Amino acid sequence: MKRFVSSLFGQVVAALILGVIVGVVWPGFAVTLKPLGDAFIKLIKMAIAPLVFGVVVHGIVGAGDLRKVGRVGLKSLIYFEGVTTIALVLGLVLAYVAAPGHGMNVDVASLDAKAIAGYTDKVGQVTGTVDFLMKLVPTTFVDAFAKGDILQVLILAILFGSGLALLGERGKPLADSLERITEVLFKVIGFIVKLAPLGVLGAVAFTVGKYGVGSLAQLGKLVALFYVGVAIFVLVVLGGIMRMAGFSIVKLLAYLREELTVVAGTASSDSVLPQVMRKLERLGIKDSTVGLVIPTGYSFNLDAFSLYLTLATVFIAQATNTELSFGHLMLILGIALLTSKGAHGVPGSAIVVLAATLSAVPEIPVIGLVLVLSVDWFIGIARALGNLIGNCVATVVIAAWEGDIDRAQAHRVLNGEVTTDTAEILDAPVAQPRIA
């Protein structure tokens, strides 16, 4: 019991429970605690861009073979598209089997369009393949870091790392310096992570205090169905994929329990990105693979987000009595495959991308977005959890595919034979895994 209380996991769980109690008993005071959650996420995000840059550059230089780096990147994209498609189809199937919107009979004319004006104005940020590809290219080298755009930073890191690798021995001093800077950033993250309980307390208290648990009542069926869908996707789809790779999804979830608890409290997977990268390295995965798959997955492998897109789209159609043909469903599926890629980094991304998806199907009234606004934060918890788990599984699977994981080390860690406490892992240097 003492070990549980002193661990980061125990402290975060206690903060989560306390946040719910404060939100219910003192809602007015709970709302004022919002800055605690916001500040914690901002502190983490502050270090993400330079950390990703350092990890990826170091990984590419350490890999030595640029063709291998390209191969890992290509395999990642193929995997992402395949798994994302499964998630989109699962969302459609669940919506039609459970029909969460049937019987609501919402009068579109009675909905307040002003509530979604701020989101629909941003639709242009996520639509159009050409625009999306153009946004991958930063205006300047510094601009990508200033905006904290992970994909832009990743592209810069790949180019810089490739150039540095081609310098050979002449580039070694700079590569060593970047490695030391990255280690310092991990230490900084270690300091910030200790504030996670405060961040979770603030975020949970604010949400419960402002919206109340009762706000789930009207749309409870949609929220419950989405949570069930994410659970099915994680345990059945991702669990099956992990089993084929020779590992257990349940043991992986137990290993990441601290990070998952923080994500559940903050509804943001960004809040644990650095910790997750370090823990996957500790699992025995080569740092170059971790550095490529995780940052890319944050924009290209949004599994739970994709599931929500199709589920919510059909839900709005059902609630507004809009008939959808098989052709409409295929159109929704195709559009969602594109719009989901532009989600990360857009404010209010879930609602914005959902608006972009609905805009491509004129039969469904975009104003139907008003129906899901009140529960978006609660749904966002499962979205963030599902996305994070999906990216961790992707990293393990692609590493196994490439032979970039020390299986003996991975099984020792997953079986609990070595420390799995996040704070200790961030404080300790990570030895390079032995690759068979």
TrEMBL record:
Subcellular location: Membrane
Membrane spanning residue stretches: 12-31, 43-66, 78-99, 150-167, 188-212, 224-242, 315-338, 350-371, 377-401
Record keyword NAD present: no
Source organism, top-level taxon: Bacteria
Gene3D superfamilies found in the cross-reference section: Sodium:dicarboxylate symporter
Pfam family name, one: SDF
Keywords on record: Membrane, Symport, Transmembrane, Transmembrane helix, Transport
Protein's membrane topology: Multi-pass membrane protein
InterPro entries in UniProt: Na-dicarboxylate_symporter, Na-dicarboxylate_symporter_CS, Na:dicarbo_symporter_sf
Entry protein name: Aerobic C4-dicarboxylate transport protein
Lineage: Bacteria, Pseudomonadati, Pseudomonadota, Alphaproteobacteria, Hyphomicrobiales
